């Protein structure tokens, strides 16, 4: 009766035929790093990268190991190589508004050249200005101007003195404060002694005469002052001309070279004017004493000359194509740049040369890849990134105040042209999409990397190419086609479906590396399938200590698991324990007691707060099943308790709901269950079996328990029929089934399962609505009828 539910041998594992590969080893294979099985993600990624509209940034989602990071970079790199190299950016001093440095762009490589040319020109100007102002030509011109104006002034003064002596008996004399009137005695200037001998009246008379003379001589005195001012202006003009000539000699060629760049020329012109205006700073050659240097906060001249320096902010001279940057630590300053400060006498000083670029500046014109979990941990970074993408401008500013007095700058923002790729998981994208309105506007493209792909011949061959690529890049031994076939089998096992392959290539890469290591340890020249098998077994051995301890406790009956005999109200359920790198199946004894009452089915785990909501739902479904199947015309008067024995942790999930129903039916029907058969599967209220996860681990887990306890005959596992496609069992389990010592059953209904477990027919209703005699369902119905009669009698009493 039960043999019809047994799964045939060929369905237990879908082996890959090594002959599918048209070569013996990967040495004979073309190397290819093509991404496999991610056509949907690649299409989305490429579409997003090709869109030049605002808001078409990309969120790449997927589990780790699917290649979402590496292939996002590879695809973006391919786009970057086809784009033009973006311009260099420099920050220069703003001579009109010193706190607002000016941003200048230029062709790649020109920024570095401009910085060098300006630096050299300032150094040469610094040398030439003192020479120009001490040259013979300059001195001759200065003397000529001085002599010509001196003669003019002397002629006017002589005329003035003749007038003063003749009419007022006075003369005029130059002093630091201008022209002074001096009284004469016998044609000679009066001395201080002569003045002391005069009476007050005489002194007052001299003062009045001097005032009258000054008033009468106003035009001549003004003419002399004009001549003096003219001399000063001419001398200043001579200096400016000399300085301008020196500056033009070295700045002019730069202006010619950058004649097509208006911003550069405006800066150079403003710089030349400032040099002429502040030429004295180029003449300070004597060292200041210590106190003077302290008071001016260091070398004033060097600090002053910094204004002429060019800050090469973004240098693309070495780039070929657009930049692509992986920002691994996206804090605010790493992304958006910062001001560097120098502490001078307790004041944090900065200038345009201390403005440092962030990764967004360096990636401007290209692409930047950021991990979602990293940037979301930096609140300032995430908000600033959205604001920057919205405004399409990069602005540098401090986000926190400094603890000391500090200078501040407000540099000119730089236009932003960038494609941002944020890499994260599905849940993060879902939360951002629901609750962050700006995210929806700015990240319109989602590239979702799948965890599995179809097991087609094309994809199988591509995995062979992938192995060949790893061998070449990592200098591994060549892999035999049998080894690659074993990797394909492992890939299907990881994907948990025989007709699928995993897209989480990092797990395959681990085995590839380790198989190479074991092959080398045995001095092999080729990696074969035995090396793959050993790598898998050794990896399992490194991680399965917990599983072995459980098996030891089952073997010495510390954990009570029966694998032979029959018992009423007892059954072996199956669960999966996930330890991260390793997961395994563990059987658990489930028991049930049934008796008259009105409490319904009591979930003992729930009563002690060890049951999750999904498990609670599964238990409640049992009542629905019993009500529909057995209580259409009677009142369900039942109390039952179900528990997972020797379970001290929380329980969740519904994969044991069918198991709990079987043990409940066994208790009601008083029919024993075969302890050598474990069960997994969910059930609905209609008695239909539903698929579960971890079917391979569960089967192998119970198989190992039976192996430890010793095979007595009849051992096996019942699974949902839908899970047959998930079977990729270990070779030893397949061999045991082939030898007839272990069986795997696939069912679709509770009736089928109970027949396998009890060896008794489930039974169906006849034309009168009664279940067949000597069946499980009839026994259950009879017991529930008895409980209903007892309940009715108690109500009548």
Account of the 3D structure:
- It is a single chain.
- The chain is an alpha/beta fold.
- Helix content is 48%, strand content 16%.
- It has 28 helices and 31 strands.
- The strands form ten sheets. Strands 24-25-23-22-27-30-31 form a seven-stranded mixed sheet. It has a five-stranded parallel sheet with strand order 8-13-17-1-18. A three-stranded antiparallel sheet has the order 3-2-7, covered by helices on one side.
- Helix 26 (731-738) links the parallel strand 30 (716-720) and strand 31 (743-747).
- Helix 4 packs antiparallel against helix 7 (218-257) and helix 23 packs across helix 24 (657-669).
- The radius of gyration is 48 Å and the shape is elongated.
- The relative contact order is 0.10.
- Mean pLDDT is 87; it is low at 293-298.
Key words describing this protein structure:
797 residues; 7-stranded mixed sheet; 28 helices
Compact summary:
With 797 residues, the chain is of the alpha/beta class. Helix 4 runs antiparallel to helix 7 (218-257).
Strand content: 15-25%
Sheet of most strands: 7 strands, mixed
Treating each run of at least 4 consecutive H or I residues as one helix, how many helices? Answer: 28
Q: State the secondary-structure class.
A: alpha/beta
Helix percent band:
40-55%
The parts where pLDDT drops under 50 for at least 5 residues are 293-298
**For the largest beta sheet, what order do the strands appear in spatially?**
24-25-23-22-27-30-31
* Shape verdict: elongated
Radius of gyration: 48 Å
The end-to-end span amounts to 47 Å
Mean pLDDT across the residues is: 87
Say how many strands there are. Answer: 31
């Amino acid at each position: 009766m039960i043999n019809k539910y047994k799964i045939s041998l060929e369905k237990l594992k879908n082996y890959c035929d090594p002959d599918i590969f048209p070569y013996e080893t990967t040495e004979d294979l073309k190397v290819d790093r093509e991404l496999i099985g991610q056509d949907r993600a690649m299409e989305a990624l490429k579409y997003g990268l090709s869109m030049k509209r605002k808001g078409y940034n990309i969120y790449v989602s997927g589990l780790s190991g699917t290649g979402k990071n590496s292939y996002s970079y590879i695809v973006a790199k391919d786009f970057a190589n086809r784009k033009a190299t973006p311009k260099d950016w420099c920050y220069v001093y703003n001579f009109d508004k010193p706190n607002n440095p000016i941003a200048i762009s230029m062709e790649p490589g020109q920024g570095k050249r401009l910085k060098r040319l300006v630096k050299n020109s300032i150094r040469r100007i610094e040398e030439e200005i003192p020479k120009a102002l001490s040259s013979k030509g300059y001195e001759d011109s200065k003397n000529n101007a001085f002599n010509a104006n001196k003669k003019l002034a002397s002629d006017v003064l002589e005329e003035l003195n003749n007038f003063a002596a003749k009419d007022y008996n006075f003369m005029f004399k130059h002093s630091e404060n201008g022209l002074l009137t001096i009284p004469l005695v016998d044609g000679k200037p009066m001395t201080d002694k002569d003045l002391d001998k005069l009476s007050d009246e005489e002194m007052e008379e001299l003062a009045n005469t001097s005032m009258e003379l000054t008033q009468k001589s106003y035009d001549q005195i003004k003419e002399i002052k004009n001549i003096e001012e003219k001399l000063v202006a001419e001398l200043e003009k001579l200096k400016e001309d000399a300085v301008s000539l020196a500056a033009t000699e070295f700045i002019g060629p730069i202006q010619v070279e950058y004649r097509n760049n208006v911003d550069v020329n405006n800066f150079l012109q403003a710089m030349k004017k400032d040099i002429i205006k502040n030429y004295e700073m180029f003449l300070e050659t004597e060292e200041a004493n210590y106190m003077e240097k302290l008071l001016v906060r260091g070398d004033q001249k060097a600090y002053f000359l910094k204004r002429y320096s060019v800050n090469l902010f973004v240098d693309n001279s070495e780039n070929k194509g657009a930049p692509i940057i992986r920002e691994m630590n996206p804090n605010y300053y790493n992304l958006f740049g910062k001001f560097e400060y120098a502490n001078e006498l307790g004041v944090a000083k900065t200038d345009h040369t201390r403005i440092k670029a962030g990764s967004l500046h360096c990636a401007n014109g290209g692409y930047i890849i950021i991990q979602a979990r990293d940037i979301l941990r930096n609140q300032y970074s995430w908000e600033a990134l959205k604001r920057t993408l919205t405004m399409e401008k990069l602005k540098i500013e401090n986000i926190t105040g400094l603890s000391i007095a500090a200078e501040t700058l407000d540099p000119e923002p730089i236009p932003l042209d960038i494609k941002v790729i944020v890499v994260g998981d599905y849940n993060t994208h879902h939360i951002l999409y629901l609750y962050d309105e700006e995210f929806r506007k700015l990240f319109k493209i989602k590239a979702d990397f799948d965890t599995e792909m179809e097991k087609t011949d094309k994809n199988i061959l591509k995995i062979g190419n992938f192995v060949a690529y790893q061998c070449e890049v990592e200098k591994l031994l060549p892999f035999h086609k049998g080894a690659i076939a074993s990797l394909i089998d492992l890939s299907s096992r990881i994907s948990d479906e025989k007709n699928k392959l995993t897209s989480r290539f990092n797990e395959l890469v681990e085995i590839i590396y380790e198989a190479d290591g074991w092959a080398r340890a045995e001095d092999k020249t080729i990696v074969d399938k035995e090396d793959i098998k050993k790598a898998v077994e050794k990896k399992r051995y490194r991680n399965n200590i917990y599983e072995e301890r459980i098996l030891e406790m089952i073997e010495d009956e510390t954990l009570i698991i029966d694998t032979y005999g029959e018992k009423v109200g007892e059954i072996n359920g199956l669960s999966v324990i996930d330890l991260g790198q390793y997961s395994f199946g563990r059987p658990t004894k489930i028991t049930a007691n049934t008796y008259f009452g009105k409490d319904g089915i009591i979930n003992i785990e729930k009563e002690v707060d060890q049951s999750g909501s999904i498990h609670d739902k599964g238990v409640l479904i049992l009542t629905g099943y019993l009500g529909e199947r057995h209580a259409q015309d009677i009142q369900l008067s039942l109390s039952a308790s179900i528990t997972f024995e020797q379970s001290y942790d929380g329980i969740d999930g519904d994969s044991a709901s069918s198991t709990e129903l079987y043990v409940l039916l066994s208790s009601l029907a008083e029919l024993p269950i075969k302890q050598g058969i474990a069960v997994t599967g969910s059930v609905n209220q209609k008695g239909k079996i539903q698929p579960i996860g971890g079917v391979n681990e569960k089967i192998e887990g119970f198989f190992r328990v039976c192996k430890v306890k010793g095979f007595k005959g009849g051992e096996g596992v019942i699974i949902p029929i839908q899970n047959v496609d998930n079977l990729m069992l270990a070779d030893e389990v397949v061999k045991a089934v082939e030898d007839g010592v272990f069986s795997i059953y696939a069912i679709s209904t509770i009736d089928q399962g109970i027949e396998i477990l009890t060896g008794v027919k489930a039974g169906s209703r006849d034309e009168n609505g009664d279940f067949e005699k000597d069946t499980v369902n009839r026994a259950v119905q009879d017991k529930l009828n008895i409980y209903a009669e007892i309940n009715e009698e108690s109500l009548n009493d």
